[in-house]
Amino acid sequence: MDIREIEQKNDEEIVEFVAKDKNVFGVLIRRYEEKLIRYVRRIGGGTRESVEDVVQNIFIKAYVNINSFKKDKKFSGWIYRIAHNECIDHWRRTKKYLANVSIEENVKLVAILSDNNDISEEISNADDAESIKMAMGKLPLKYREILVLRFMEDKSYEEIGEILKKPVSTVGVVLRRAKHKFKNILIIQDNELR
Amino acid sequence: MSLDKKILNRIKEENIKIKPRWMFALKDFSFELLAAILIAVGSVSVGLIINFIAKSQGKFSVFSFPYFWIIILAISLLGIYKSLMKAELFYKFRFAFVAITIVLVNSLFGLFVFASGSAEKIEEKLEEIPAYGKILPITVEKYTEETKSKQDEYESGKTKKNNNNNKKESEKDNDKKSENEDEEDEYGESDGVILSEGDSMEDGAGKEEYDEYDKDKKDEYDEDNEDGYNEEEDKHNKNEEKDDKDDYNKDKKYGENEKNRNGDKNEGENSDEYDDEEN
Question: In Å, how far is A25's CA from the nearest CA of chain B?
Answer without folding.
Answer: 8
